[in-house]
Amino acid sequence: MTPKKISPSDPVRSMTGYGEAEVEREGRILAAEMRTVNHRYLEMAIRLPRGCNALESRLRSFLGERLHRGKLNLTVSWKEGGDDAQLAFDEEFAARYYEMLQRMRVRFDFQEPVTLSHILANPEVLSYREPELDPEDAWNLLKTAVGRAMDALVVMREREGVSLVRDLQSRLEALRRGVAVVEARSPHRAEEAKEKLRLRVGELLAGEAEVDPERLVLEAAFAAERMDCTEECVRLVSHIDQFSEMLEQGGAVGRKLNFLLQEMNREANTIGAKANDVAVAREVIQIKEDVEILREQIQNLE
Fold first, then answer.
1. Inter-residue long-range contacts of 262-268, CB under 8 Å, 24+ positions, other chains counted
2. What mean pLDDT do residues 52-70 have?
3. The CATH number of domain 161-298 is 3.40.50
4. CA 119, CA 93: separation in Å to the nearest integer?
5. How far apart (Å, rounded) are the C-alpha atoms in residues 245 and 243?
6. Helix axes 230-249, 254-275, angle to 10 degrees
């Protein structure tokens, strides 16, 4: 099956949803009930009436056109309508079953008599007879019931997706503010390091120690470079921008967003290691916490 192409206008959907639908045919009702939860891939568990089992492969392809991730549980069954004629009583089987129970009673010397409840306990005695349908008619009926249930499920997934996107966007803005604080602090941190080095050199000179001027310049340059987080902040902001753009484009973006969050966390770790500053470290902790919350939230995105 060729994967469905995602249109830029497709909304971001949650992987959690529920849908049900019924279709009536000749006094009988075909009911479809489906629910989806989080899953890394698309996994389907399908239960069909006996007369529709041959259509399972075709149905899986039909479902895969609209679902891309999540664990799907689908149950399709016939429900009895207003026509009691669909209730089947296998009189011949019931008679044989009764005779067998009587023989067992005598053989094992049971005192309890055989009653109607004993006979009805066998599900083959009374059953609902499924309509006999042409394969193509069965497929059209199945597709209609499942399609309607799918519509209801998708509506729920899209509604929850809207709420998730709104929350994700607000957390992205908090992440931007945190990066801005680190960017604003970074130049001051380099200047403080230079001043600290200058004071240390002054102490050495006061003690009449020999200091190589060129080495001092190199050390100052190295210290400033080690503490410069500009590149990491630029990349982190770029990842935030990409994250926001993917949410706006819509479609099945969950896996891509998960990859971006891994990159964000890597940049945050690098900033924390380079800064060697209490204020920056405090902000990095908050950034990493926001990234982790984002990661948890997107686990429910398709």
1. 263/235, 263/239, 264/175, 264/236, 264/239, 264/240, 264/291, 264/294, 265/291, 265/292, 265/295, 267/232, 267/233, 267/235, 267/236, 267/239, 268/236
2. 92
3. no
4. 10
5. 6
6. 160
Average pLDDT in the chain:
82
Q: Which residues of 219-234 are buried (b: 16+ CB within 10 A; e: fewer)?
A: ebeebbeebbbeebbe
**Among candidate residues 84, 88, 87, 64, the one with its CA nearest the CA of residue 3:** 64
Residue 24, φ and ψ in degrees, nearest 5: -95, 140
**Cα distance between residue 45 and residue 70, in whole Å:** 11
46-55, 82-91, 203-212, 288-297: which has the minimum mean pLDDT? 203-212
- As a whole number of angstroms, the distance between CA 21 and CA 142 comes to 11
Q: What pLDDT, in 10s, does the model give residues 260-285?
A: 999 999 999 988 887 777 788 888 89
Beta bridge partners of 101: none
Instruction: Give backbone dihedrals phi and psi of 81, rounded to 5 degrees, phi first.
Output: -95, -145
Q: For 158-174, what is each residue's pLDDT tens digit?
A: 999 999 999 999 999 99
Domain ranges of the chain: 17-85+128-159, 92-120, 161-298
Which strands, in side-by-side order, build the sheet including 70-80? Answer: 17-25, 28-37, 70-80, 42-47
| Verdict on whether the full-model pTM lies above 0.70 | no
